[in-house]
Request: fold
Amino acid sequence: MRVQGSPDLFPEDLVGDVDPAAALAHGALDPRAFRPGRLVRAHRKLCFVDEVNRLSERLQNLFLELLAERALTIGGYEARFPVDTVVVATMNPDEYVGVGRLSEALRDRFERVRLDYPTPADEVSILLTHTGLPADAGDDTRRLAEAVVGFANQLRAEPEVEAGPSVRATLASFDLALAWRRLGTGGHPPAPGDGVIDWRQAALFGLRVALRGRLSLRPTHRLASRPEDYVEHALAALSL
Reply:
């Protein structure tokens, strides 16, 4: 059962609400009138909460009883709903814009694991797998993926880059580069070793388009308001 973290969610979305038709038939406080929400429906399932720190404090508090006692008490009802589930949640660091902080009580109920960027070899495999290409794709295609990943890692290591390219950014760069090569060969995938469209040109095109809107520089940098110019300068100095 997936819960997408958002401040727009209401407790009724997670816990449940009254079904008007059943309330007319059985009464508003009859348990049979209750329409279970996502957390109640997660009983004997895996509950995945994406971006848990985007939930409001009121919604975060719903997880305290769930994680401590494997049950939920519904306001207005005497019934207590058992919820035997494993909760897996993701969150971005607290300093990111648009996220809140988890209470210490809720933090104490989770085992926390920090995930970093994948290794370059793993990220290249992710690009090839995501686009449906075999692991032994042609040399030019693999070089293209390695060039995209290599440049992304170069930016991630730059001290003036506040938020480096994510894996989604490298995926977008690679997709755009492949599309550019396909267009240059009449809509057909280029054959291995086909020099009609240089893989270097394709890589530069994909990086230029995908990264200009995804890079965040430190406020003190002279190009902080124009990250697209920073990408252009960095690509000009890139040796593929």
